[in-house]
Amino acid sequence: MRHTLLIASLLALPLAAQADGFKLSSASIADGKPLSLRQVYKGFGCEGGNVSPQLSWSGAPAGTKSFAITAYDPDAPTGSGWWHWTVVNLPANTHALAEGAGSAGGALPEGAVQGRTDYGESRFGGACPPVGDKPHRYQFTVWALKVDKLPVDANASGALVGFMLNANALGKASLTATYGR
User: Fold this and answer.
1) What's the DSSP call for residue 115?
2) Alpha-carbon distance 147 to 132, whole Å?
3) 44, 48, 140, 180: which sits with the fewest CB atoms below 10 Å from its CB?
4) Helix (H/G/I), strand (E/B), else coil: 28
5) Mean pLDDT in the chain?
6) Secondary-structure percent of the chain, ordered helix, strand, coil, rounded to 5
7) Which whole-number Å values give the CA distances from 127 to 86, 149, 150, in the listed order?
8) Number of other CB atoms surrounding residue 133 within 10 Å
9) CA 140, CA 133: separation in Å to the nearest integer?
10) What distance in Å separates the CA atoms of residue 75 and residue 81, rounded to the nearest whole number?
């Protein structure tokens, strides 16, 4: 019995390695490093560029039918965090978004839908933590989904999009940047 468990564990190793192959990278942001002023909000007392970062991903799980992107600040002093960006219904053949794709005037793939951020806009909203707070974490996540489309529109809240993503996720990959002022 003990050998059977050992063999089963060893056979599962390639599957675990394959699941770990889903990766997110960016030419605009670096994991564990501060955001540049390009990814800072313009408004609420902040003077940034409000430009969504370039994102690229690879190694999506088998069966992926679409992708979604979220940007979330779990450190916002709201009791529920702060949604900076949600974009869903990215076709399965999409593996990158250009810098600025989610910003005003940006170009997303046909059929993609940006939900409403906590700024009240259906586009990317950059970092803008309160003055004097310790640097906040900004979690950029690409989600591999088992469905072609999520039934949401530009008025969908981050919480609704998050619920739909968790219900349909095959996998996800993240980068976490920081920003304080």
Assistant:
1) -
2) 42
3) 44
4) coil
5) 91
6) 20, 30, 50
7) 14, 28, 26
8) 13
9) 20
10) 6
**Cα separation of 179 and 127, whole Å?**
7
Between CA 82 and CA 100 the distance in angstroms is 20
Instruction: List CB contacts of 53: < 8 A, sequence separation 6 or more.
Output: 26, 28, 29, 38, 39, 99, 140
Two tokens at 156? 């969908």
- Token duo for residue 72: 């979330």
Beta-carbon count within 10 A of 161 CB: 24
- Residue whose entry in the numeric block shows the structure tokens 């003077």: 47
Per-residue DSSP letter, 130: P
Q: Tell me the per-residue pLDDT of 36-87, one tens digit each, with 9 for 90 and over.
A: 999 999 999 999 999 999 999 999 999 999 999 999 999 999 999 999 999 9
Cα distance between residue 144 and residue 129, in whole Å: 29
